Amino acid sequence: MTVTCVIGTQWGDEGKGKIVDFLAADCGLVIRFQGSDNAGHTVVNEHGRFGLHLVPSGIFHGKVRNLLGPGTGVNPDSFLTEINGLDEKVPQLRVRERIMIAERAHVIMPYHRTLDGAQERSRGDLLQGTTGRGNGPLYADKHARSGIQIADLFEPEYLRRWLENTIPEKSAQLARMGEEPPELESILERCQVWAEGLAPYVVDSFGVVQEALASDRDTLLEGQLGIMRDINWGHYPYVTSSSPTAGGASIGAGIPPRRIDAVVGVAKAFTSSVGEGPFPTELSGPQAERLRIEGDEFGVATGRPRRVGWMDAVAVRYAVALNGVTDLALTKLDLLDGVAEIPICRAYEIAGENVEWVPNTHRLARARPVYDFMPGWDRPTAGISTWRDLPSNARAYVERVEEIAGTPVRYIGTGQAREDIVCRW
Q1: Among residues 21, 37, 41, 218, which one is catalytic?
Q2: CATH number of residue 172's parent domain
Q3: What digits encode the pLDDT tens for the residues 285-339?
Q4: Is 0.90 topped by the overall pTM?
Q5: Does the annotation mark 41 as catalytic?
Q6: Annotated catalytic residue within 13, 37, 312, 327
Q7: DSSP label at 149?
Q8: Cβ(422)–Cβ(336) under 8 Å?
Q9: Is residue 220 located within the same domain as residue 167?
Q10: Does residue 379 sit in helix, strand or coil?
């Protein structure tokens, strides 16, 4: 068996859901290893089109088990709504029988969401672009040892004592921001409802993962967002509050680093971003609007229009180096059909210096992209599934991306559906 980690090499929104859905067919287990419902993965297959926020993208394969790992944050209401929706739309897949939540995952509490919105509003012109789903306050509490794990929902006496200690601090914090304080009894009642609803899905994930590693079926680790949103290596503070890297996968899933056999880095053939922060190749005007509309570049979690730009291969090269990426998956190549000349950012120019890696946020904000210009193609690539059938200029574009990034492009997305993909070997 092999363990493959799927991570984003840009700002997120690269198409990781499509790649996980494609790769999961022969797997026994898919693990979401970090993040919460603050972002989403779009999956299009024979069952329809789905926007997943918490459920791993392997759920559409009837023999694959799916786990929300200890590194994730779970909003119980969002999870139960998502499961109910899937069960109604694809009852034949028996999703309830194949989804698990690690008892060590953390719970997004109502006050986390309130704090998230209040903190963002208080930043004035220093906005970070948070989705307001409570993700940042959740991870802040986790690392301050003030959080609530899924397992705590099933210990009502402990939970009451813990919340009696926690809520006064949250109330004071929210009062300073002009928000209503949380009410203890109301939250405890809600936690009881959550415990009843989540009980069929909660597991000790250590045993589940150890069993998977000992089996003869592959395991997939599914990340959320991308390297530029990583808490350590992204353009801080415009980042998420967890680590969507291969290293983060090891911790968030509970798999030893040396057991990860391959790392698939997903990159879009152009670049997009939801949220604030530097974005060196950002486009505006008709070309940006075309990519946004034809590429359906709107946030799965928020519906916000994504910022779009040309391929930033510097960010991809940075992600390859930090994650030990073994294979790239380049998605949405078909969105470049008909573009006469296609820029690829191979370096940044900062104060007269040529920079080939992603610098700190202040320097990145001053970066100007240094482009290679590749000839476009006038023949459609949409739906093509073999390398030789791609136009020669499209193949040259892919080869230039892999040359700059320093690792081979194995998969090429030519549409949103699962089958719209080129697998080169």
Answers
A1: 41
A2: 1.10.300.10
A3: 888 888 888 877 776 666 778 899 999 999 999 999 999 999 999 999 999 999 9
A4: yes
A5: yes
A6: 13
A7: B
A8: no
A9: no
A10: coil
